[in-house]
Amino acid sequence: MRARLRDRIAASDPGLLRLTAGLRTVGAIALTLAVLALLGADVHLLVAGAMAAMVATFAIREKQLGAQAVTLALGLPVALVSVTLGAVLNARLYVGDVFFVVLIFCAVYGRRFGDRGTALGLIGFQVYFLSLFVGAEVSSLPPLCGAIALAFCSSAVLRFAIVPATPTGVLLRLRLAFRARLAQLVSAQLDLLDAGPDEMDKALEAVREGTARLHETAMMIQAQLEDGTPDESAARLVQRRIADAEIAAERLGLLLLTSRSAERADTLTLHLPGAPAPSVGQPAAPDEATATLRRDLQALRALVLRAGSGESGTALAHVRNRLLGYRDEENLPPAPAAVQDAFRGIGEAARSVLGLRIALDGPQDESDDTPATARSREELDAEDAAIDGGEEPAEEKETGLRRPTTRAAVQVAVGSTLAIVGGELLSTQRWYWAVLTCWIVFLNTASTGEILVKGYRRLLGTVFGVVAGIILAGLVGQHTWTAFGLVLLLIFAMFYVAPLSYTLMSFFVTAMLGLLYTLLHTYSLDVLLLRVEETALGAACGVVAAALVLPVRTDRRTNELLGTVLDRLAEVTEAAVGQLSGGPADELLDKARDLDQALADLRAATQPLTHPVTPLRARRHTARYVVALLETCAYHARTLAATAELLPTHPSIAADPRLRGAAGRTVRNIETIAARVADEHAAARVETGPSIASLLGSDAGTPRYGRITDRVLRHLERLDEAVVGLARPLGVPMAEPLA
């Protein structure tokens, strides 16, 4: 029961990153409040200390503890200078406003210096805002500075002593999350096998969601590998095994879907949200083969869950040996071809789980191995020995106003100026709420559409948060510590849901502010309504600045990212096919992960186009379709890359020089589409023609899965079809097929 609960938590919060952030922030605030209460501080200092502790904790995002300590130490003098200037300039209207705009520009511009520059800029801005919120004056500076210093010390205690988060520890928890999410995906695939015609769409959507969540965790592990593993070879080994498991799980889902339908399922079906399931009949009849398939899926799920528990024994070894045996043709049960393919998929998934366990947990007991299991171990050992490190190529960086940080700094400075002017027209005392909203909508956004969506979400969360704030303020009245207790709960909720929903985060922030106003005895319905007005004004100013000052239109942003995805796709495909054709080894998994990251960036940038409130319905469907096609292409490219890396060590894989020529059309088509995206007047056309298998003169009598080359051909064909499919929604003309 405890293990099941642990797996569920690990899957819902990979690496426990959200839980850690919430506990650390709430703990720092609680410690600050406790010390200040013992010292007899008044409520203004309590509020200031709580806000400073929150800022000191969430602003620092570096991975290594040493770097975090340096940034926290530098952040304290920045905070003290910022609150001092806020108190001095508070009464000087125009000078204070000008300084606030300059501070905002510097804070955003500081992002170009990495995590430390971002953290120090955020601390400077937020503490200046804190001074305005509590109405800091020069006479109150000594106790206020003391409260801020105490807040930073409390943050250090929680960060380094009570709730530490080392890169190694985070990576360990992410690995648990990957296993838990892999088990959840297998459970969803089992439901897909058992679903009736009316339940098929729901079951397929669960498989899609599980596949996406597994991929998300794999990307999170990739981001932590460099800092969380002892050496580069170990990092590459884990990277390889994670990629193998992800590919095997995704392929198993496709094979199970095919086993339920009358024809081979399209890979796009697994990547396009809302796409209908292929026509299926009733659930598989309870004959011996399908009953065995269902049993082995359950066994695979158990194998995944127990892989990280340290469990071993004869029963577990028996399950592992049986599943790995399906990699040999003679061990397949009598069944239709599509069902046999599913058994093969289970065997490949079991092999990936074995490799994952060896890579993460070290050597295993081999006394109960069957010949099939021993052969799988030998293959894995040979692959591991061939893995070594490589160097990342340096990327060109933009300069001047083309640099994103510089452009964003100019935009947010202009938007903040508008927000100050408009905010003071609404309220001479609380105009800074408009500035805060303008600042926040620019965080982690890169186009006008993203800023518009973020502003809309913040306004929506604020409106509902005002209602909650009114209710909570009425309930707590003047009970100070009850209010602070609710503030801590709301702050924890804010940090826990922040990566999941910006609207919910804004809701909890606004509800918390209603309680803080109550503590400062400035609560009223008018104040909370003013917060909505200032939020709407700040969001509008941010959108206006983004649209008029050095604008980056959503179309331009998505086209740039689309071009990057296509370039990465061409690189991975060409390198993988080149290696499969007998060419030199390349850093294929690194290239594949670069493709995944580029695709993740594109998916985030298309949110304004796919948001439910967008009025352009046809455009929304097109954007979703293009992203789904690209995810399909990425899946096939990842599989080709993983297969190519097996070439030097796997006895059943041989280089085939014909592949380079056969795949040349696919690479040219990707480059043609990329050129068309970059220049709509480009004249090149997408080529069509005979299938890749026919170009290689593939023997129709060759058994399916009889050679690894056949699998490579199928992935190349599906990739070629998906690339040609991209031409229509992107408006790329098709060339007439050659006679």
Order of helices and strands: HHHHHHHHHHHHHHHHHHHHHHHHHHH
Shape: globular
Query: Tell me, what is the CATH class of the largest domain?
Result: Mainly Alpha
Strand-residue fraction?
under 5%
Average pLDDT over all residues: 84
Please give a handful of descriptors for the protein shown.
739 residues, 27 helices, 73% helix
Describe this structure in words.
The chain is mainly α. It has 27 helices and no strands. Helix 10 packs across helix 24, helix 18 (480-497) runs antiparallel to helix 19 and helix 21 packs antiparallel against helix 25. The protein has four domains: 1-165, no CATH class; 178-276 and 290-369, no CATH class; 404-550, no CATH class; 554-735, Methane Monooxygenase Hydroxylase, Chain G, domain 1 (Up-down Bundle), CATH 1.20.58. The relative contact order is 0.07. The chain has helices at residues 2-12, 17-38, 43-58, 65-89, 93-109, 114-133, 141-162, 167-194, 200-228, 232-260, 288-307, 314-324, 337-361, 371-386, 404-426, 432-442, 448-476, 480-497, 502-519, 525-548, 554-580, 588-605, 607-610, 617-646, 658-678, 692-695, 708-727.
Question: How does the SSE layout of this entry go?
Answer:
Layout: H1 2-12, H2 17-38, H3 43-58, H4 65-89, H5 93-109, H6 114-133, H7 141-162, H8 167-194, H9 200-228, H10 232-260, H11 288-307, H12 314-324, H13 337-361, H14 371-386, H15 404-426, H16 432-442, H17 448-476, H18 480-497, H19 502-519, H20 525-548, H21 554-580, H22 588-605, H23 607-610, H24 617-646, H25 658-678, H26 692-695, H27 708-727
Helix pairs in contact: 1-8, 2-3, 2-7, 2-18, 3-6, 3-7, 4-6, 4-7, 5-6, 5-15, 8-9, 8-10, 8-11, 9-10, 10-13, 10-24, 11-12, 11-13, 15-16, 15-20, 16-17, 16-20, 17-19, 17-20, 18-19, 21-22, 21-24, 21-25, 22-24, 24-27, 25-27
